[in-house]
Each structure stands twice: as structure tokens, then as C-alpha cells.
Amino acid sequence: xNSNSNIQKMLNDELECFKEIHASSKLIADDLNxxxxxxxxxxxxxxxxxIKTIQLIENERKSLDISEQKxxxxxxxxxxxIKEVLLQIVQIDAxxxxxxxxxxxxxxxxxxxxxxxxxxxxxPKTNEAKIIDIRQS
Length: 137
What we know:
Layout: H1 3-30, H2 37-63, H3 68-74, H4 76-122, H5 126-136
Helix pairs in contact: 1-2, 1-4
């Protein structure tokens, strides 16, 4: 395989990985209110695998010793496609972060309320204690 077709294949492989990240992230983001913590963890694991694949491809491409500027000028179409997918991923990630942050705040507030109720129920009720003391004497 010649160098140009090899580079084209690498860039296409990178683009596919980014598209897979985009598709899986979008699925979760579109129904995030129903997403469980396990779903989010699985999304992150899958994304990490894709990112590692992208890094391997990038390392292989960099080993060919071709300048980024030359790559961008010779493969501008695929670079613009990658850029577009990345911009969409950033937008989805912003949405994911907002909703995850809201979920976290909601959980923290629930835990504070539970803690408050536990503290109130564990405090001795002084009126009941006095009544018991009076009856005993």
C-alpha cells in the first residue's frame, strides 16, 4: 500500500472512531434523564477504547514523518469532517456535563436531607424524657 492511500486509510479510521464516539454519546445524551450510572460508566469505557485506538493511529501516522500542515492541505476534506464530528462531540459533552452535574446536585441534596432526618431522629426528645422521669418518681 502506498503512503498516500495508507494515510487516507488512517484518517478514515480516525474519522470512524470519532463517529462511533459521537453516535454512542448522542444516544445517551438524547435520553440522559433516563440513563443510569452504569450506562454512563459504560459510555466512558467505550469512549476510552476508541480514544486509545485513535491515539495508536495518530502515533502510526506521525511515525511516517509527514508534517501536519502537509496532511491538512492534502487531506482537507477528511480533516474538516473530523473537525465537524469533534465539534458535535464537544456540544454533546457540554450537555452531558450539565445533566450529570444536575444529577449530582440532586443526589447531594437528597443525602443532606437524609442526614438531617437521621440527626433529628437520633436526638433524644426532651419532652418525652421528662414525662418518663415524672412518672417514675
